[in-house]
Amino acid sequence: MVIGDGSFQYSLQSLWTAAQLRLPILLVVLCNSEYAILKAFAEDSPGVPGLEIPDIDIVALARGYGCHAARAETVEMLRSEVPAAAERHAPTVPEVPIAATVASLL
Question: Taking the model in full, what pTM does it have?
């Protein structure tokens, strides 16, 4: 599964359940340090506060819930996590940094 860091904040507690059940799932977190979809919705309302979410340590949060986690800064690093995730008895959560851009909704 792939999820953004903003959306990840809405479902973080699900990692605990997955870890308790020892599920070998892969949850890739794309990290741009903002709620990009909310920014896109707020395009006509500049200055909406709280849409930047800098300095959230996705790796530390995932590890705190009992998952294997790592920051995958290269494609090779991410590729190595995929087969390893299937062998683990816990969720694997690679954090992948991406550019902070707001896509148009149209």
Answer: 0.85
